[in-house]
Write a structure and sequence with these properties.
single chain; alpha/beta; Rossmann fold; Elongation Factor Tu (Ef-tu), domain 3; 2 domains; six-stranded antiparallel beta barrel; 10 helices; 32% helix; elongated
């Protein structure tokens, strides 16, 4: 998969034709996957490149960062899943003041036609674009007739009679409902990151943890989970993870801390993927480190029992 970042790097003249879809693709859920399947199908038919255009940051994070929803996926995790779906090209546009000010007409001409050589465009049924969200499906159809590309929309994807959406997935994750989230995502919920040095409190509590850097200030989950860890030579290794601000020690920043069961080793600097398997409890503020230590060891015991019951330990 080829990744091109920044519209100044979209190649322009000589770029091979592509079938394109555009959006945030946060979570790359089942609705997104239906769009990707159609992009790949059309690309195979015409022997054009299957392509996705993303925004970084996501538009809401640019316009109203304090009101922006929690990210389901970091850009890196999103690219990992798109690669698994065999998308050939990903164009990542930096959403900034310059990009925001593009009119619908300029976006079509400069980005889609001159930049990406789009021959066919697949969009969701609620797609809007351009300064002031002036562009819509009807606008794209008219522009396509003028510039020589075709456009199709995709109907809403339903699961159990309800629309699959990133908002619905965030709600399920916030409630610890991993089963519903996985059903809507089409894959288990995971977070990846690189292990960095923390404050070593876990070691003093006889429960050392790998501390993963979270790329965004908000994630849709919090609490304690039974998880599996993959990376650094590990594959689906059983573990227990805590996601939150650590109120017992007056923590401020959001952290993902993972204690691997039956493991000894140095993971600093390694990139790990943590897959949420089972919600154990919400994040709580305990009355001192002794109470916290007792709770952590109860979490480890519960996670161990859960993995054993599933035949995974």
């Amino acid at each position: 998969m080829q990744l091109i970042r920044g519209i100044h790097n979209f190649q322009g003249q000589g770029t091979s034709p592509c079938v394109l879809t555009i959006g945030n693709f946060d979570g790359v859920h089942l609705g997104h996957q239906r769009i990707l399947a159609r992009v790949k199908e059309k690309a195979r038919e015409q022997q054009w490149a299957s392509s996705v255009m993303l925004f970084e940051p996501q538009p809401m994070e640019w316009f109203k960062p304090e009101q922006a929803p929690a990210r389901i996926m970091s850009l890196r995790d999103k690219l990992t899943v798109l690669r698994q779906h065999n998308i050939e090209r990903v164009f990542c546009a930096r959403f900034n003041k310059s990009f925001q000010s593009l009119s619908a007409g300029d976006f079509v001409r400069r980005v889609l036609v001159e930049g990406l050589n789009v021959r066919h465009l697949v969009v969701g049924d609620d797609f809007r674009f351009g300064s002031g969200r002036e562009g819509d499906f009807a606008y794209l159809q008219q522009a396509g007739a003028a510039y020589g590309f075709t456009v199709e929309d995709t109907p809403t994807y339903l699961h159990k009679g309800e629309r699959v959406s990133s908002t619905r997935i965030r709600s399920a994750l916030a409630q610890g409902d991993l089963e519903t989230a996985e059903a809507l995502l089409g894959h288990p919920y995971f977070i990846s990151g690189r292990v960095h040095h923390g404050d070593k409190i876990g070691r003093t509590l006889n429960a050392p943890t790998a501390n993963l850097v979270l790329r965004h200030a908000k994630v849709p989950i919090s609490g304690v989970y039974a998880v599996t860890v993959t990376g650094a030579g590990l594959k689906e290794h059983a573990a227990v993870a805590s996601v939150g601000t650590r109120p017992t020690v007056d923590g401020k920043e959001l952290r993902l801390e993972v204690h691997l069961l039956n493991f000894e080793g140095d993971l600093y600097g390694q990139h790990l993927t943590v897959t949420m398997k089972h919600f154990l409890r919400p994040e709580l503020k305990f009355d001192g480190l002794d109470a916290l230590q007792q709770a952590i060891h109860q979490d480890i015991q519960q996670a161990t029992q859960w993995f054993s019951a599933k035949g995974l330990l």
